[in-house]
Amino acid sequence: MPVRVRQAVLLALLLAAPVQGFAADLLNALEGRLAGLSAGPYPGPSHAIGSAANGCLSGGQSMPQSGPGWEVLRPSRNRYWGTPELIEFLKERAGRAHGLGTILIADMAQPRGGRMPSGHGSHQTGVDVDILYRLADKPLSDKDRAEPVMDSVLTDKGALIAAQWGPKQTELLRIFASDSRVERIFVNPAIKLAMCKTTKGDRSWLRRLRPWWGHDEHFHVRIACPAGDVDCVSGPPLPEGDGCGEELMSWIRNGAWAVKPTGGARGPSLPPLACREILGKKQP
Hints:
Helices cover 29% and strands 17% of the residues. The chain is built from 8 helices and 11 strands.
């Protein structure tokens, strides 16, 4: 991106942003945010740094746009990057789910992680991925890949839509949630409730399904921090049990399952110190 264009974008973002703290700090944060989108991967070994909502990715790897059991959606957004652990996990799980259909991979992370301009407050360290509940039964056309159908699987009353949900979707969730590499999976509370009501036998995998707003056309998988990444911040430990009790029901009773998020939650304006160079400098 030309320097003058970059400066103009940063100035526009600065003028549009709410004033908080020192202008230099805010400008630094915006510079890092833009660099995370426009730069290539930061060279060197792979490291997830910081938390999912405030961090970056060093040595990111790209997910191939297609392979045995998967297709990557909207590649022009350049959000198909992650740690080697996430890439390996996705390839292996896609192979495990291949009998159900082809999994459709949406947003992962930017080449250097960091905050995305829109759509997420997390996905910043290369350990997150969104996967559609919809499974493909044939290769996607260029148009289907660029502009995928993102239909909700829920009615406005919170019931599963039969045309959008069946045993394959339940098995898809189980395949991902039963993997010990997974830290948590965010699903709509109404979907979690349906899984709680219908799952027989082994229910241990339900614990990793965490109720959250939206997530009615895709589920959000977060794997654990890679071994040895000492600057990677894990989420809080999961509560004991299958998660089908009062915590879930509070979402259902107050109608929070139906809330439509307007955008990702905003984290701190400044990234961790270890991310300043990664997000603020382009690859030579």
